[in-house]
Amino acid sequence: MPTPLIQLRNVERFYQTGPTRTYVLRRIDVDINEGDFITIMGPSGSGKSTLLNIIGMLDSGWAGEYNLLEHPVHKLNQKQRIELNKRYIGFVFQSYHLLDDLTVAENLDVPLSYRNVKRAERAALVADSLDRFHIVGKKDLYPSQLSGGQQQLVAIARAVIASPKLILADEPTGNLHSAQGEEIMQLFKKLNEEGTTIIQVTHSEKNAEYSDRTINLADGWIAS
């Protein structure tokens, strides 16, 4: 039996304006197992990024039940959720979210500094990561000195450097030309084959083909 990594039960997200509730997500029930590669698709405004942000614990204003491994996220406070996020999750955003005033090597070091990894071990992990992603020659450059594809490579390297169980990717190839996008998707496929669970939000049918399963959202509901 595959191990369930994520279980969502009756998860809802709404915004209250006076007496009016505007729902972004309705009655979401999803099981995701360790080692899955999942795509979330749907038109703009269907709740894709909101669902990803709830799974990533970047959004706390939701109702329902969310279990991550044996942790009942719905019962945890914000501090405990941040700890879980650091321990298990790597995030890749469309707009890279690199820290502009840090070099590539320093950007890669950031997630390790959250995890109390010793300095010498951090340096070794950063060196390995630079090598693995073929960005050794860029280690002393700043994000503004890199192309979009290079910035996204660095963002993915940063997301996986601490060996997260789960990578969440929000339109990871949205700002890249097709050859760079292809390279990024091949990289995700390889990480998934090595055991990392991946959930991506995308508009691209081509990117969706890399995954095992697609969850389609429409107006906040899972479309059958």
Description:
With 224 residues, this protein is an alpha/beta fold. The chain has a single domain, classed as P-loop containing nucleotide triphosphate hydrolases (Rossmann fold, 3-Layer(aba) Sandwich), CATH 3.40.50. It has helices spanning 48-55, 78-88, 104-113, 119-132, 148-160, 178-193, 205-208, and strands spanning 4-17, 20-33, 37-41, 62-68, 71-72, 89-92, 166-170, 197-201, 213-218, 221-222. It has a 6-stranded mixed beta sheet with strand order 6-7-8-3-9-10, sandwiched between helices. A 4-stranded antiparallel beta sheet has the order 2-1-4-5. The radius of gyration is 18 Å and the shape is globular.
Please tally the β strands and state the result: 10
CATH architecture annotation name: 3-Layer(aba) Sandwich
**What does the oligomeric state look like here?**
single chain
Give the structural class: alpha/beta
- Give the overall pLDDT as a whole number: 91
- The fourth-level CATH homologous superfamily is P-loop containing nucleotide triphosphate hydrolases
In short:
The protein has 224 residues and is of the alpha/beta class. It is 34% helix and 29% strand.
SSE map:
Layout (H helix, E strand, L loop, with lengths): L3 E14 L2 E14 L3 E5 L6 H8 L6 E7 L2 E2 L5 H11 E4 L11 H10 L5 H14 L15 H13 L5 E5 L7 H16 L3 E5 L3 H4 L4 E6 L2 E2 L2
Parallel strand pairs: 3-8, 3-9, 6-7, 7-8
Antiparallel strand pairs: 1-2, 1-4, 4-5, 9-10
